[in-house]
Amino acid sequence: MTAARISSPADHPSPQPGLRERKKIKTREAIRTATYALVKEQGYDATTIDQIAERAEVSPSTVFRYFPTKEDIVLTDEQDPILLALLRSRPAREAVADTMRYVMREGARMGFDEDPEVARLRTHLMVQVPAVRSRMMESMSVLGRMLCVAIGERSGRDPDSLEVRVYTMSLLGGLMETALYWGEHDHEDDFAALLDRTLEVLEHGLSKENR
What we know:
Helix content: over 70%
Low-confidence stretches: 2-14
Structural class: mainly alpha
Number of strands: 0
Shape: globular
Strand content: under 5%
Mean pLDDT: 86
Radius of gyration: 18 Å
Order of helices and strands: HHHHHHHHHHH
Distance between the termini: 26 Å
Largest sheet: none
């Protein structure tokens, strides 16, 4: 999910990755860090893959091996598997709506716990760069398929049913619009508060209470 990261691994213990996976994570992070720095220095369009590779001290082919497009570098993080694990860790009897509210609120805390500047940069690029916004929509579709499976498990419904697909994608669509709204308004509002407003609309519709 964009503009966010999740609470620390100590809050939700999971097996530690092996050496090979740690090296991959370190390389991905070096590429992302180099990209963020270059974009802040000279803008998104002026930043090239060759420059990113040089700053990250890797080859251009390594950049492409980890990230198929430049847009993926600024949008991809390690969050999705953690969110899915968090969703599956919730009490079995908890209502699906309560589970998703909890998961999305936790997700909203991630960027600000780890790097609020990156969260703002991402949403700024989503607003300003059509290619980034388009790629975000594609990535939401991929995440949506994974969430459909998890939500189907919790609800006892077919993950490919219309109801599960509509419910899941409405949540992700709401999250994306919240991020865009936040960026369009120069990050003046608290993102978590905006997300609460989004969740109220998704749960209750355009009621008088949430005008």
